[in-house]
Amino acid sequence: MTDVPTAPPRFDDASDDVLAYLRRVIPIGTWTVTRFDGERQIYLSVDDTDLGLSSGDSVAWSDSMCQYSVTRTRPTFIDDPHAVAEYAAIVEKSGLGVESYVGYPLTTSDGKLFGTLCGFGRSRLPETAEINEELIVLLASLLARILEADLQATAVARALEAAQRNADTDALTGLVSRNGWQRLLETEEARFRRFGDPGAVVIIDLDDLKKVNDRHGHHAGDDHLRLIATMLTDTVIEPGIIARIGGDEFAILLTDVTATTVEAVVDRLRRTISRSDVSASVGFGLYSIAEGLDGAWRAADAAMYIEKMSKRPFREHSRGRAVVD
């Protein structure tokens, strides 16, 4: 009988199993696997009984106790955070009444910090907590291996999808088509949620394509679209996918980028557009586990529309009320 190949373990499933086990071994209020995205600590998997934390919640890294534990080679056990100055300041700012903390970093084989395996709660640590130091190291090491395997499998899948994306190419601009964009968001959504990837959706809408078509013909309009496509491709050097999602609307999915980087990308786009013969409005929305990629798209579209409306002059309607041209 031939063995049926099984799928490799997923990082999120393994995280849930580890947290459930730690709950039994060291029963403090909250156990969680987190992601450090360069600016925030995001709670990916959460086993919580008293602090009200949920998957997708986040805190600034500067407000996280884990910022201190990741510099150590052994697990950190804090039974009275009020007695340690740096921890006391964080507990006071959080207002959560935390009385205990356990933390250990999750790193990939190249030494890059992914996040942490940590626990904290409103009660003191069990007296036997520290005898589980080696267990925490072992569990974190196993999680890190599963994480790396999952990340590698995801990278291979993305490369294959990129090769297959030629079928989803917009013929005029060479960018991903609207259908390709929809499929892209569907496949990336689960990955963003699994790894807590930081990212964003950027929307670019041309302001004057209809005028170009009316005055100079559709060939000129096509040249206009090809020009903006080239500008986007040349300007956006961060990891991501650029698509034409409408007649005069473009979208960018930025992956593994912080909010600060996204703002820098958008500022660079606006400067490039302002130096060209193209007029366009730009908006962006940051990814969150709660709202998903679709929520980021809606936020980007709303921000773009606000910018577009701000450019349109107001005139008096014949009935005496202000309208937008």
Automatic annotation (TrEMBL):
Alphabetized SUPFAM superfamilies for the sequence: GAF domain-like, Nucleotide cyclase
Q: Which PANTHER family match?
A: DIGUANYLATE CYCLASE DGCM-RELATED (PTHR45138:SF9), REGULATORY COMPONENTS OF SENSORY TRANSDUCTION SYSTEM (PTHR45138)
Name of the protein described by the UniProt record: Diguanylate cyclase (GGDEF) domain-containing protein
Q: Where is the GGDEF domain?
A: 197-325
